[in-house]
Amino acid sequence: MTSEQTARATAKADRRQSLLEAAARLFADRGFTSVRLEDLGAACGVSGPAVYRHFPGKTAVLGELLLQVSQDLLDGAHRVAGAEDGARDALTGLVRFQTDFALSHRDVIAVQGREMRHLEPDVRAEVVRLQRDYIEVWAGQLRLLHPDEDHGTAVFRTQAALGLVNSTPHSVRRSPSEQRGRRTLLEGMALSALLAGSEAR
Predict the structure, then answer these.
(1) What's the predicted TM-score (pTM) here?
(2) What homologous superfamily is domain 58-195 in, according to CATH?
(3) What is the DSSP string of 46-90?
(4) CA-closest candidate to residue 64, choices 42, 81, 40
(5) HSE-up of residue 76 (Cα within 13 Å, Cβ side)
(6) What is the 3-state secondary structure (H, E, C) of 109-171?
(7) 31-83 residue pLDDT tens
(8) How far apart are alpha carbons 49 and 9 in whole angstroms?
(9) Which of 28, 50, 124, 181 has the most CB atoms within 10 Å of its CB?
(10) Tens digits of per-residue pLDDT, 174-193?
C-alpha cells in the first residue's frame, strides 16, 4: 500500500469514527428515530449522501456503535482482570474501568439503554452475547473470591453493580473537585454492591 493509499484509508477510518461519535451524541439527545442521516453528516461537516460511503443506513450506524463499544468493554475487562493477581484486586480494577467508561461515554450509555430495540435481530443478538460475556468476566472473578456461591448470584451481583454505575453518570456533571469525589463514592458503592455480605462469610 502506498503512502497515499494509507493516508486515504486513515482519513476514511477517522471519518467513520467521527460519524459514530456524532451518532452517539445525537441519538442520546434526540432519540434514534428523530435523527436523520443528514443530521449525522452535518455534525461531521459532510452531506447526508456522503454518509452512505461509510454506512448503508442509520440502523447500521447504531449497530456499529453498539457492537464497537460492547467489544471494547469486553476486551478491556479481560485486560484488567488479567493484569491483577487476586480476584478482589481484579474486581476493584473492573469497577474502576466501568466507572471510567460510564463517566466518559455518557451518551453511549444512554443509547445502549434506550435504543437496542432498533437493531437488526442478528446485530442485537451479537451485542447481547458480548454484554453477557462481559458480565461473565466479572462473575468469574466473584466465583474465584467466593467459590461456594452459585453462578446466578455472581451474575446478580455484577448486574447490580453495573446498573448502579451506568445509571449515575448524568448526575456527576459538576465541578472537577466534586466529580472526583463523586467518582470515588460511586466506585466504593459499586464495589460494596459486588461484595455485599462478604464480611459475614
Answers:
(1) 0.87
(2) Tetracycline Repressor, domain 2 (1.10.357.10)
(3) S-HHHHTTT-SSHHHHHHHHHHHHHHHHHHHHHHHHHT-SSHHHH
(4) 40
(5) 16
(6) HHHHHHCHHHCCHHHHHHHHHHHHHHHHHHHHHHHHHCCCCCHHHHHHHHHHHHHHHHCCHHH
(7) 999 999 899 889 988 877 788 888 899 999 999 999 999 999 999 999 999 99
(8) 19
(9) 28
(10) 556 666 778 888 899 999 98
Q: Which three cell numbers stand for residue 155?
A: 451474575
Q: Where in the chain are the domains?
A: 1-55, 58-195
CA proximity to 197, closest of 157, 141, 168: 157
Q: Which CATH number is 1-55's, of 1.10.3720.10, 1.10.565.10, 3.90.1150.10, 1.10.10.60?
A: 1.10.10.60
Residue pair 137/81 in contact (Cβ under 8 Å)? The answer is yes
The size of the chain, in residues, is 201
Please give the backbone phi and psi of residue 54, each rounded to the nearest 5 degrees, phi first. -110, -35
Nearest Cα to Cα of residue 113 among 123, 100, 127 = 127
**Which among 176, 33, 184 has a CA at the least distance from the CA of 111?**
33
Q: Quick check: 186 and 162 in contact, CB under 8 A?
A: no
